Amino acid sequence: MSVKLQKFVKAALLLTVLSVALAACGSKPAQDAGAANALEQIKKAGKIRVGLMGTYAPYNFLNDKHEVDGFDADVAKEVAKRLGVEAEFISGEFSGLIEGLQKDKYDALVSQVTITEDRKKMMDFSTPYVKNAVNVIVKSDNGTIQKIEDFKDKKIGVGLGTNDEKYLRDVAMPKVGKFEIATYNDVITSLKDLDVGRIDATINNVFALKPLIEKNQFKVKAVGEPIKEDFAGIAIRQNNPELLDAINKALAEMKSDGTFTEIFHKWFDVDPNF
């Protein structure tokens, strides 16, 4: 091959590489912008896919018509309405909700997802829409457990993957000494086990437990002062500012026009607690 031909081939190859590189650089921002704007995708679909447990009355549960109902459900439906779409509910065990959100199974989680610093590293949260006080729950005839300091050497039930489980492992156990932790995928099973003595205590918020205790006539009670207070928010995938802003705007409007107070009264018969 002549010198001139070699130079020509090299120049042609260089131009080809540059063209491909420039094309890739030029197309990437447009793709990223389309993928990032979840709000536009939701509006185009006409629905927002909402992940929740569906077994956590009065927050979210299946009613007698096998429809998703509850405080979380009403909040989600009202937010969806203000976004101009419908809420499509997809139920699943709490321990899998966050992973499902990250894998695009849901657009948002409205299932009493506690706002924590660790979770903020994985997803974005709306402004809080409820505050939950968590109490120690024991059998009605129990007189030995009144506070978390009494958990030592006992068997304590808690929801799998919840912030309450993390609290028991990271805060309570180092503070009070070793105890056994039994995890559950739903609240009703933990209360059944507590009622028959398979566990010594559990922790949960009283709003969630009251309807289950009344319906099933469990002989259990809350004791002592709340051990902690948590705030729950609507969780979405990170880096979707348009969707987060729209959700926060909807929540703010609901609080200012009285809609949120109506929903809170419907399910808890008290004024909003924050």
TrEMBL record:
All copies of the Ionotropic glutamate receptor C-terminal domain together span: 47-270
InterPro entries for the chain: Iontro_rcpt_C (IPR001320), Solute-binding_3/MltF_N (IPR001638)
User: What positions does the domain Solute-binding protein family 3/N-terminal occupy?
Assistant: 47-271
Q: Which PROSITE patterns does the record associate with it? A: PROKAR_LIPOPROTEIN (PS51257)
Q: Secretion signal: which residues?
A: 1-23
SUPFAM superfamilies per UniProt: Periplasmic binding protein-like II
Keyword Ubl conjugation recorded = no
Keyword Lipid metabolism assigned to the entry: answer is no
User: Which GO terms label this protein's molecular function in UniProt?
Assistant: ligand-gated monoatomic ion channel activity
Q: Which GO terms describe its cellular component?
A: membrane
Pfam families reported in the protein's UniProt record: SBP_bac_3
Please give the superkingdom of this protein's source.
Bacteria
Q: Which PANTHER family match?
A: AMINO-ACID-BINDING PROTEIN YXEM-RELATED, MEMBRANE-BOUND LYTIC MUREIN TRANSGLYCOSYLASE F
Protein name in the entry:
Transporter substrate-binding domain-containing protein
Report the source organism. Answer: Paenibacillus thiaminolyticus
